[in-house]
Amino acid sequence: MTSPEKTPAATALSPAPGFVPPESVRRVACVGAGVIGGGWVAHFLARGYDVTAWDPAPDAERRLRRLVDAAWPTLASLGLAEGASRDRLTVAETLEQAVSDAEFVQESAPENLGLKRDLLARLDAATPPGVVIASSTSGYPMTEMQTTAADPSRLVVGHPFNPPYLIPLVEVAGGERTDAGAVAQAARFYEAAGKSVITMDNEIPGFIANRLQEALWREALHMVANGEATVRDIDLSITEGPGLRWAVMGPMLTFALAGGEGGMAHMLDHFGPSLKSPWTRLEAPELDKELYDAVVAGCDEAADGRSIADLVAERDWGVVEVLRATGRLAGGEGTR
Ligand SMILES: NC(=O)C1=CN([C@@H]2O[C@H](COP(=O)(O)OP(=O)(O)OC[C@H]3O[C@@H](n4cnc5c(N)ncnc54)[C@H](O)[C@@H]3O)[C@@H](O)[C@H]2O)C=CC1
Ligand SMILES: C[N+](C)(C)CC(=O)CC(=O)[O-]
Fold it and tell me: Is 162 in the pocket of ligand 2 (CB under 6 A)?
């Protein structure tokens, strides 16, 4: 179950005594500054926060500043918060320095359970009291990550979508030892920072969106493994098909419209029996070398000479146009 009060009403969740008021948070620490940590940094800077980042890789600062610079023109075209500036990014020498005066901490280190456990315990030891520490994990339940922290009550999952500076959704959940107030605090902070929040009352395996994405991805891999579709066919089947509708309406309401005037009830009467048809192979395929190579080669072919930086720019432009067209941006012409 998810909280009945989802976006925009996560603000209606109980206030969190003992925490910094979410609307007055000004300083954010981002720990781990790769694809996602860097994306978070760009987002928080554009929203006018002071951001301190830390990442142990020797070339991390160069990569981070390059990512922020690449995203900045898009963020500027969307409208920066008053006072927003790339000069408000500090890269700390140590993890302890990064979080010493943070009012919210976003962890985006590699997806490795042991590493996350140790890092969250270290972050908890170094972060001032009353500050929530959120993990960007794509799927570990917080209960499994908070095992070694001295104060697990302030550890939450805050799962973003790539790139966090453009995709609004954040999925928020606590673990068995998380204080409900910390979950509410994170949800309210993300909303104040311009995100759309889904708060999960329980630890849902894969959260919500990744569970759905993984089902789709598993089927895509089966089709490549069996020679039923190419990587290009799979991408086209979504970008020229359901993907266009999903940017406007989710899969449920989209299918309700498949029932015509009868809506979802007619859709279920009509197509419900086909749910049992053997279309899906939900067991995961073996990710052997042959499948691995076929997917990588198919993506290279589909990229057709475009570099990763070209693809990032193309994706960002497209997402902004979709957000604008569907009225999710100030000045948009959509009807939402
Ligand atoms: N890539 C994606 O599309 C998404 C990833 N995530 C999650 O975000 C997290 C980060 O993933 P990515 O940014 O894709 O990985 P990445 O590999 O691009 O970046 C990870 C960064 O963490 C740094 N790092 C390594 N050890 C560290 C440590 N002990 N403490 C702090 N930083 C450390 C690395 O130097 C690297 O810069 C993962 O938990 C992942 O599941 C969430 C949503 C989407
Ligand atoms: C590929 N991924 C599982 C890391 C993706 C995510 O977690 C969310 C996203 O950005 O789609």
Answer: yes
Beta carbon of 138 within 6 Å of any ligand 2 atom = yes
3 state SS of 252: helix
Taking domain 209-305, whether its CATH number is 3.40.50.620 is answered by: no
Verify whether ligand 1 is closer than 6 Å to residue 153 (CB atom). no
The distance of Cα 3 from the centroid of its chain, to the nearest Å, equals 18
- Distance from CA of residue 278 to its chain's centroid? 32
Does residue 35 have a known ligand-binding role? yes
pLDDT digits (tens, 9 = 90+) for 50-79: 999 999 999 999 999 999 999 999 999 999
Domain boundaries, the chain: 9-199, 209-305
Global ipTM: 0.99
How much distance in Å is there from the Cα of 44 to the middle of ligand 2? 20
Please give the CATH topology (third level) of the domain spanning 9-199: Rossmann fold (3.40.50)
Report CA(149)–ligand 2 centroid distance (Å): 26
Which DSSP state fits 19? Answer: S
What are the tokens at 180? 């409900």
Cis peptide before 8 (omega within 30 of 0): yes
Asked whether 138 lines ligand 1 (CB < 6 A), one says yes
Q: Each residue of 257-299: pLDDT tens digit?
A: 888 888 889 889 898 888 888 788 778 878 899 988 988 898 8
Give the strand pairing for 50-54 and 89-91.
Answer: parallel
| Look-up of token digits 């309700």 | 256
Query: Which 3 state secondary structure label does DSSP give 14?
Result: coil
Distance (angstroms) between ligand 1 centre and the Cα of 297 equals 24
How many residues belong to the chain? 336
CA nearest to 18, candidates 180, 198, 173: 180
In the chain, which residues have pLDDT < 50?
1, 3-12, 15, 331-336
Residue 282 identity (one-letter amino acid): L
